[in-house]
Amino acid sequence: MVRRDRLRRMREWWVQVGLLAVPLLAAYLHIPPPQLSPALHSWKTSGKFFTYKGLRIFYQDSLGVVGSPEIVVLLHGFPTSSYDWYKIWEGLTLRFHRVIALDFLGFGFSDKPRPHQYSIFEQASIVESLLRHLGLQNRRINLLSHDYGDIVAQELLYRYKQNRSGRLTIKSLCLSNGGIFPETHRPLLLQKLLKDGGVLSPILTRLMNFFVFSRGLTPVFGPYTRPSESELWDMWAGIRNNDGNLVIDSLLQYINQRKKFRRRWVGALASVSIPIHFIYGPLDPINPYPEFLELYRVLIQKVLEYEVLTTM
Q1: Which residues form the AB hydrolase-1 domain (predicted)?
Q2: How far apart are the C-alpha atoms of 120 and 208, rounded to whole Å?
Q3: d(Cα 161, Cα 38) in Å, to the nearest integer?
Q4: Residue 284 per-residue DSSP state
Q5: Per-residue CA distances from 175 to 148, 149, 248, 270 (Å)
Q6: How far apart are CA 307 and CA 213, in angstroms?
Q7: Burial status of residue 295 (CB atoms within 10 A of its CB: 0-12, 13-18, 19 or more)
Q8: Which of 96, 102, 133, 170 could form a disulfide with 70 if both were Cys (CB 3.0 to 4.6 A apart)?
Q9: Least confident window among 19-28, 47-56, 89-98
Q10: Beta bridge pairs of residue 146
């Protein structure tokens, strides 16, 4: 009898916990996205949208130095947006005649369709489409990219080298802290779970909040360059815009794509005739030192050997 009463009380307790947890979970899952800060709101209102296959893509386009022919296109990283470049935007306008940046599909203020098979190939085509929209398809373009944007830049470089129709004519390329070598890339635990989680991924994307996001992203920065809490909130606001947190697992498939198309994208960096500059923060935990730099040196050595052979 005592045992039966104990089991009954335990069942009643769990029922009460469940009745309390359900509305709390429902409230948590329906927390609205944070309000845009004045700076982020200004970034959005000063930008524009164009349409790519029925999808709205956000971009910034600023005129800079008068009389200069130079154009630079900025390709942002994962999981943020074109707003990453706002601190150097004014400086770039003092160097280039035209400074252009976009939010890739699934990022920032651009559309975030779901379900959707996001791919690096599509993002590269969106960049090409934007430049056609701006009437710049026949101009020589400087590319400045970071992280995820590095892979998009590599695909654009491949198309340029293959003389593909609709390609960008690339004048120079600057890559910064991107996992251009999949074998040295060390994704965060959460990234691994999201890209390979199967049925678990949709649950994790819904449970993700600012605390999880900020704790996961902050260690990626160097000890002296970590973003402030307000900057992290701006990043999170961009992700939450249009329920972007629900497509993070789909966007992360780029990690698997990078392995599959390694030969294509790493090969694009070899035997190129344009200037390539590389910026690498050696404290990057995602692309760790020294393995990453050793592979890059091997690649450069192969490029130099190729150049010697072709000039003999």
Answers
A1: 71-303
A2: 24
A3: 42
A4: -
A5: 10, 8, 23, 14
A6: 45
A7: middle
A8: 96
A9: 19-28
A10: 176
Question: What is the DSSP secondary structure assignment for residue 226, as one 8-state letter?
Answer: P
Encoded tokens for 88:
């150097």
Euclidean distance between CA atoms 227 and 242, whole angstroms: 23
For residue 13, the model assigns a pLDDT of 52
Direct distance between the N- and C-terminal alpha carbons of the chain, in angstroms, rounded to an integer = 96
Strand order, beta sheet including 98-102: 48-52, 55-63, 98-102, 71-75, 140-146, 169-176, 276-279
How far is residue 111's CA from residue 104's CA, in Å, rounded to a whole number?
9
Q: Which of 294, 288, 293, 148 has the alpha carbon at shortest distance from 219?
A: 288
Q: What amino acid occupies position 118? A: Y
280 and 226 in contact (C-beta within 8 Å)?
no
* Phi and psi torsions of 173, nearest 5°: -140, 130
